[in-house]
Amino acid sequence: APILLWLRRDLRLADHPALDAAARSGRPVIPVFIRDDSVDNLGAAAKFRLGLSVAALGKELADHGSRLVLRSGPASAVLDALVDETGAGAVHWSRLYDPEAIVRDSAVKAALKARGVAAESFPGHVLFEPWTVETGQGGPYRVYSPFWRGVRGREPGEPLARPGRLPAPEAWPGGERLADWRLGAAMNRGAEVVAAHARPGEAAAADRLAEFIEEKAQDYKAKRDFPGVDATSNLSENLTYGEISPRQIWAAGQRAMEEGKAGAEHFLKELVWREFAYHLMFHTPGILTGNWRPEWDAFPWNTDEDAPEVVAWKQGRTGEPFVDAAMREMHVTGRMHNRARMIAASYLTKHLMTHWKIGRDWFADHLTDWDVAANAMGWQWVAGSGPDAAPYFRVFNPATQLEKFDPAGAYRRAWIAEGQARPPATARAYFDAVPRAWGLSPEMAYPAPVVDLAQGRARALAAFDARAK
Ligand code: FAD
Q1: Residue 163 falls within a domain, yes or no?
Q2: Residue 165 domain-assigned?
Q3: I need a labelling partner for 199 at 20 to 30 A (CA). Which of 124, 211, 300, 354 fits?
Q4: Are residues 437 and 308 in the same domain?
Q5: pLDDT for 78-124, tens place per residue?
Q6: Which pLDDT score, from 0 to 100, does residue 106 have?
Q7: Which SUPFAM superfamilies does UniProt cross-reference here (predicted)?
Q8: Based on the domain organization, do 352 and 431 belong to the same domain?
C-alpha cells in the first residue's frame, strides 16, 4: 500500500525524516500538499511566497520521477479521500508546533488511526524537540542565554541525504492546479517587484547557505548589525517554508567553526534564537495571541490601526529615516534587516505607543519570511511584553541608531528616494511596489517627523510608570 507524504512547512527532499522513512520502506510514495485554513489564513506576502515554494518542490519531485498532488479543503477530509482513492496504508508528516497545527494534526492522527491507517509524525522543523530541552530544575527555559548554553553542546545528528528516485504509485490521484489557487491574489503591491527578491526552493537555499559560509561567515559577528551591508544569510525566507532544515544549517555552521571561521558560532547563536522562539511557543502558546507578561494588558496602547501616525508607519513615511527605510525595504523585498525590524517595531510600540499586534499583523502581510514563532517573539521582545524582553525603559532612538549602524548612509540612500538627485533602483522600486491608492511618488517632499522623538519617548515612559503603580 502506498504512503501519503503530507507536506506542509518541509518543502524539500534532503534531510527530511518523514520522506526518508517513506522512501526507505520501498512502498510507493504520494507527496501531497493541502491548501487548508492554515494556508488561506496566511498574510498576503507569505501566501504568495508559499506558492513559489510549492512550485519549486513540484519541479523537484518531477525530477525524481514523482509528483506533488495538490488538494484543497480541511486536511482530515482531504487525507481521508486520498486514502480511499489510493488505498494508502500510512500517512507521514513533519511535526509543527503552533497550537492550531497541533490541534489539527492530533485530530488527523486520531481519525486515521480509527480507520486503521498508520499516521506517523517526524521531526525536522526544529533542531531539538521542544519537550527534550529542560532547565536543570526541570521545565522549559524562559531566558535565551541559558537556553543557548543548554543546547550548544547538543548534537542534532547528521543531516539525511536526499533519496534517489521515489517509487511512484501505479496510478496517481488527481490534483488541482497551483495557478488556480491564486496564492498571490491578496498582494496589495507589485508581486513581481517582491518576487525579484525571492530565492525560492531547495537548490536556491542550499546555494545561499554555501555562499554565506564561504563569503560571509568570517565577518558575520562584526557586520550583521549594519543594515546597509549584505552580511547575513537571508535564510529565514527558506527556513520558514522548510526549503532547508535547521539541522543542515547547524552542520554547515559547525564545520565552519572547525575551519576557524570567526563569525560561525555567532551565526549558530542566531539560529538558536529561532529554536528558542519555537520552544517558547510550544510551552507557552499564548505568546501568539496576547501579552506574554499579563501585566501589559493594562497598558494604554493605541489600538487604532488607521490612526494617521500608524498609517505613516505602514507607508514608510514617518519622517524618521531609519524607520522609513526599514518599512520600504519590506515593501520592496518582502524582508527587513534584523536591526531595522527592531527599530521599526520599537518606534511603533514606544514612540507611537501602538499595540504590537497591529505591527505584527502588518509584518505578517508583508514579510515573505513570516514565521509564526519568530515573529511573535520578535514583537513581544521589542514591546517589552515578552519573555526575556528588553526592559521597557530602554527605548531605541532611531536617529542615534541610524548614526551608529548606518554611518555612511548606505541603508538610508538605498531606500529613501526623496532628496536624492539620482536615487538608486531600490529606492525607486518602493514607489512601484506600494498600492496606487496611496498616491505616492518620488517627487514628493520627505515628510516631517510625525512625532518628536523626545516627546514620544517621554510619553511612553510616563504611561509605563503610571501603569506600574
Ligand atoms: P541571519 O542573521 O543569517 O540568521 C540566521 C537564522 O537565524 C535566520 O534565518 C533565522 O532563522 C534565525 N534568526 C536570526 N535572528 C533571529 C531572531 N532575532 N529571532 C529568531 N530567529 C532568528 N524572523 C523570521 O524568520 N520571521 C519573522 O517573521 C520574523 N519577524 C521578526 C519581527 C521582529 C519585530 C523582530 C525584531 C525580529 C523578527 N525576526 C523574524 C527575526 C530576525 O529579524 C530574522 O530572522 C532575520 O532578520 C532573518 O535574516 P537572516 O536570515 O539573514 O538572518
Answers
A1: no
A2: no
A3: 124
A4: yes
A5: 999 999 999 999 999 999 999 999 999 999 999 999 999 999 999 99
A6: 98
A7: Cryptochrome/photolyase FAD-binding domain, Cryptochrome/photolyase, N-terminal domain
A8: yes
Is 468's pLDDT higher than 70? no
User: Catalytic site residue 41?
Assistant: no
Distance in Å, CA 280 to ligand 1 centroid:
15
pLDDT tens for 159-213 read 999 999 899 999 999 999 999 999 999 987 778 899 999 999 999 999 999 999 9
Residue 34, domain member (yes or no)? yes
With 0-12 CB in 10 A as exposed, 13-18 as middle and 19+ as buried, what is 150? middle
The atom of ligand 1 lying closest to the CA of 277 is 20
| 356-366 vs 372-383: helix crossing angle, rounded to 10 | 150
Q: Whose CA is nearest to atom 8 of ligand 1?
A: 236
* Alpha-carbon gap, residue 235 to 248, rounded angstroms: 12
Torsion angles phi and psi, residue 316, rounded to 5: 70, 40
**Together in a domain, 141 and 75:** no
Assess whether 268 and 135 both reside in one domain. yes
pLDDT band of 387, cuts 50, 70, 90: confident
Ligand 1 pocket test target in 125, 236, 238, 245 with most atoms within 8 Å of CB: 236
Number of Cβ within 10 Å of residue 63's Cβ equals 10
| Cell representation of residue 347 | 518606534
Please check whether residues 92 and 202 belong to one and the same domain: no
Ligand 1, atom 4, residue with closest C-alpha: 270
The span from the CA of 463 to the CA of 155, in Å, is 46
**In 3D, which of 383, 396, 393 has the Cα closest to residue 293?**
383
| 273 has catalytic annotation | yes
Which residues approach ligand 1 with their CB closer than 6 A? Answer: 224, 232-236, 239-240, 270-271, 273-274, 277, 338, 341-342, 345, 363, 367, 369-371, 374-375, 378-379, 382
Under the banding of pLDDT at 50, 70 and 90, the label for residue 295 is confident
Q: Which of 120, 172, 188, 273 is catalytic?
A: 273
Residue with cell 519590506: 330
- In the three-class reduction of DSSP (H, G, I as helix; E, B as strand; rest coil), residue 202 is classed as helix
Average per-residue pLDDT in the chain?
A: 96
Closest CA to 171 of 295, 50, 40, 69: 69
Catalytic: which of 250, 379, 381, 415? 379
Q: Count the domains in the chain.
A: 3
Q: Which domain holds residue 202?
A: 126-155+194-283
343 alpha carbon – ligand 1 mean position (Å): 14
Domain ends where: 283, 307, 322?
A: 283
Does the annotation count 93 as an active-site position?
Answer: no
The CATH number of residue 331's host domain is 1.10.579.10
Pocket test for ligand 1, best of 219, 338, 342, 348 (most atoms within 8 A of CB): 338
Q: Is residue 431 a part of any domain in this protein?
A: yes
* Ligand 1 centroid distance, CA of 126 (Å): 14
Averaged pLDDT, 342-368: 97
Say yes or no: 416 and 303 in one domain: yes
pLDDT band at 145 (very low <50, low <70, confident <90, very high): very high
